[in-house]
Write a structure and sequence with these properties.
Oligomer: single chain
Strand content: 5-15%
Helix content: 40-55%
Number of domains: 2
Number of helices: 20
Radius of gyration: 28 Å
Largest sheet: 10 strands, antiparallel
Number of strands: 12
Distance between the termini: 84 Å
Length: about 600
């Protein structure tokens, strides 16, 4: 027993040392980025000495080409970091009524004291939070999966160059990432073994998250409810009491801020409701009257249910996941893609464990405030989903650790037979596959429903080449490919088609943007005949007129609109080899025959 305890202590000490080294590595990278971008600013002696002692080392710990960029010439002159500095200097007490929650302002104020009031304080505050998120990510991975998963996730976050770059710019998103990860860690521990001490710790972490962004309630409350629902029936009463205790501790920490906002402004959720002004202005709506966040979101779902569901599904599921991973390719080309695949596998594996399901609930609900606002103004910036990144990295580490464990078991001496798969597990897998297939089908259909919904409301609607366009394009089209700031498809046959979901009979205008294959003899450029549901609607002789950028406007009589899903056939007079079609078709194989490039189809009622 004594030897076992000694081995455990040595193992724990080794893990602690590894986590400390990984955290130090992440800190050095952030110091390097901070010095590169803001180090020229007036700093106290301790900060200058810190940079001088570490910069010679950090240059050998990162790729030679890193995206730190040149020093920022005019930092903190606008946007949120400038406001954080001003608000921190004006801060009277922690729970003051304010448009910004107090945690990041208090941290920034602390660095203002340490730096004798230098503006770079806000960058120190965000960089510190970004560094502390590294060991927090280890704690989450080790608790939900295994120590190996935690180490992989922590190292990935420490060295991810996109995260490093953002962490020194003075945003509060690194702080929010830190408190979200800590909250998830405490919730996992509470779920594993409920106790009063763990409930209090979970409540403190959740309170810190809400006092960094009050919108954190979107995952704190569902997370506590889920812990109760997932608990065994015999222990549900005990788990419920501890979950309530965590909620009460969180409420006790957050309530003074809400009460002060209520007394000063008449709105306890002023810190979140105020920002609907920005999003309504971005949409061109009137901002004369205040609108709560709940009313703003509800009005969107009432007015455009399919569009809102589509926007939310992309904002919660797809966009946060696919926009990450680029910061690893500076280290090893393709590393980000490998980690992304591992994360996807880890998210699926998470469904089979109680801890994993809790993390999925926390991840998805934490993205709810971002779900409908990401297309508006700067709402789609990477930093707004930064808090989700550690969840993905933990999932990637979990998948890798799971694979290592399974391989080691299969290679163990005497391991000759594969374990039997129970009927219950087969049922679970089948149910999971059905759910995933249904979700994929809904995701594929939603663009058509959004298009139909806009036209039914009397608004123009557009079918554009790009992501999720497979339901619209029929025939021999090339895959979507970027063309400047947009995306195009090329017609690889004389006859191609586009499905158009027209809601009702009526007269319509179609605006088509397409560019011809450019032959040396303009008279040999393909011509296009457009048919709608078999009826001819236009003869198009394409040309390259910069004033019209390849736009062709076509009138559609209501007699040809006789079905819910109409079909627009575009029939070219001939095709030409891509090698002879001009530089715009250079990305295609030279022997492919092409007629034109298609950008979008815009439909509006007369």
């Amino acid at each position: 027993m004594r030897r076992t305890d000694q081995r455990r202590r040595r193992h724990s000490a080794a893990l602690a040392a590894l986590v400390a080294l990984i955290t130090l590595y992440g800190a050095l990278l952030r110091i390097d980025a901070l010095a590169s971008r803001y180090g020229w600013m007036n700093q106290p002696g301790w900060a200058v000495a810190l940079e001088q002692r570490t910069l010679s080392l950090t240059r050998h710990l990162r790729p030679q080409i890193v995206p730190w960029g040149a020093p920022v010439q005019h930092p903190y002159v606008g946007g949120d970091p400038a406001n954080y500095l001003r608000f921190a200097r004006e801060m009277r007490h922690f729970y003051q009524a304010h448009v910004r929650e107090p945690v990041f302002l208090a941290v920034t104020r602390g660095f203002l004291w340490l730096t004798d009031g230098a503006d770079i304080s806000v960058s120190f505050a965000s960089a510190l939070a970004g560094t502390l998120a590294v060991p927090a990510t280890y704690l989450l991975g080790a608790a939900a999966w295994s120590p190996l998963a935690g180490l992989i996730a922590a190292l990935a976050l420490a060295m991810e160059l996109e995260a490093v770059t953002w962490s020194v710019d003075g945003w509060r998103d690194d702080t929010f990432m830190l408190v979200v990860v800590l909250t998830a860690w405490t919730f996992v521990r509470l779920c594993q073994r409920p106790s009063a001490s763990r409930a209090v710790l979970a409540g403190v972490a959740a309170g810190a998250a809400c006092l960094t962004r009050i919108s954190a309630l979107s995952f704190v409350l569902p997370g506590l409810v889920w812990i109760v629902l997932e608990s065994p029936a015999l222990a549900r009463g005990t788990v419920t009491r501890h979950a309530v205790l965590a909620a009460l501790v969180c409420g006790a920490l957050v309530a003074p801020f809400l009460v002060n906002c209520w007394r000063a402004t008449g709105d306890p959720f002023f810190a979140i409701n105020y920002h609907t002004v920005y999003y309504r202005a971005a949409e061109g709506q009137s901002t004369n009257e205040p609108v709560s966040a709940l009313r703003y979101v509800t009005s969107k779902f009432v007015a455009r249910p399919f569009q809102s569901i589509d926007t939310a599904s992309v904002g919660i599921v797809r966009r946060p996941f696919v926009r990450n991973w680029t910061g690893f390719d500076h280290w090893v080309s393709g590393a980000g893609r490998v980690l992304q695949v591992c994360a996807a596998a880890g998210l699926v594996l998470a469904l089979w464990t109680r801890d994993g399901r809790l993390l999925l609930i926390l991840l998805l609900t934490s993205l709810i405030p971002y779900a409908l606002t990401w297309p508006l103004g700067g709402g789609g910036e990477w930093r707004f989903t930064q808090h989700a990144y550690p969840f993905y990295l933990v999932a990637a580490g979990g998948a890798i650790a799971f694979a290592v464990t399974k391989i080691s078991v299969l290679w163990a001496p005497g391991r000759l037979t594969r374990p039997a798969v129970s009927r219950a597990r087969l049922v679970q897998v089948s149910a999971l596959l059905l759910v995933l297939l249904f979700a994929a089908a809904v995701h594929a259909i939603l663009p058509a429903l959004v298009f139909h919904e806009a036209l039914a409301a009397g608004e123009p609607a557009t079918i554009a080449a790009g992501e999720r366009d497979g339901l619209f394009f029929v025939g021999a089209w090339s895959p979507p490919e970027p063309a400047g700031n947009t995306t195009i498809r090329a017609a690889l046959d004389e006859r191609v088609a586009v499905r158009v979901p027209l809601p009702r009979r009526g007269d319509y205008w179609l605006t088509v943007r397409m560019d011809p294959a450019e032959t040396e003899d303009p008279n040999q450029q393909p011509r296009v005949t457009a048919f709608l549901n078999g009826g001819t609607i236009a003869q198009i002789r394409m040309h390259r007129d910069p004033a019209r950028i390849g736009l062709y406007r076509i009138a559609v009589p209501k007699e040809l609109v006789g079905r819910r899903i109409s079909r627009l056939d575009l029939v070219a007079s001939h095709t030409v080899p891509a090698a002879e079609a001009g530089p715009r078709f250079a990305s295609l194989p030279a022997t492919d025959r092409v007629a034109f490039r298609f950008w979008y189809l815009r439909v509006e009622r007369k």
